[in-house]
Amino acid sequence: MAETDNRNGPTRRTVLEGGAATGLLLATGLPVEAQQVEPAPAAASTTPGPTMSVSLRINARDFAVELDPRTTLLDTFRNHLGLSGSKKGCDHGQCGACTILVNGRRINSCLTLAVMHEGDEITTIEGLADRDRLHPVQAAFIARDGFQCGYCTPGQICSAVGMLNEAREGWPSHASDEVAAASVVLNDSEIRERMSGNICRCAAYPNIIAAIRDAAGEA
Predict the structure, then answer these.
(1) How many CA atoms lie within 13 A of 129 on its CB side?
(2) Per the count of CB atoms within 10 A, which of 20, 113, 118, 215 is most buried?
(3) Is the pLDDT of residue 152 over 60?
(4) DSSP per position, 88-100
(5) Is 183 left (phi over 0), alpha (psi -120 to 50) or beta?
(6) What pLDDT, in 10s, does the model give residues 60-93?
(7) Which helix (H) or strand (E) holds 206?
(8) Chain segment 20-67, per-residue pLDDT in tens
(9) In the chain, which residues fall in CATH 3.10.20.30?
């Protein structure tokens, strides 16, 4: 059909062109004349970078592994050593699923590089049990049903073990009534505050707190 030429109004073509220009302006904030075609980004290089030999002490065993020095401790466990118990959740240190113990202190293994931990004593969830005897925190989590999907559980348990060590040493928290007290009373408020860096998306928090409270006298 031929385009209507109405001298008293716009043609169909000008209406369509005007609509396209308006849509572009709303989407980008720039008029049509200002739009420039950006060159396609160059393909990322697939050439592997330099590696280095790293010696790690994990769960009372010595490991030697060849790594890109930018490899996180978490990726070293999962991708190079077959230790898949520590989970990758947010990969930004915000969920606690990757929590492990380094020299008895809990850390997020997604936020630290493996090369930084030569000479350290590293404990993952796989190293907590004494052969067939579960760690008291592990046993309490089972007895109290302190998990649902289980994805966060390795980090929750490692964090709880580290937290109980901190409490025994008298570390206060924001929930502590007396920061200079010689000992810490691990009531529910203290446990919630001290475990706040570990997220359970299934919301099994009441059972987690109960499990930690039970284990506090045994761990």
Answers:
(1) 11
(2) 215
(3) yes
(4) -SSSSSSS-TTEE
(5) beta
(6) 999 999 999 999 999 999 999 999 999 999 999 9
(7) helix 205-215
(8) 554 444 444 444 454 454 555 655 555 677 999 999 999 999 999 999
(9) 51-127
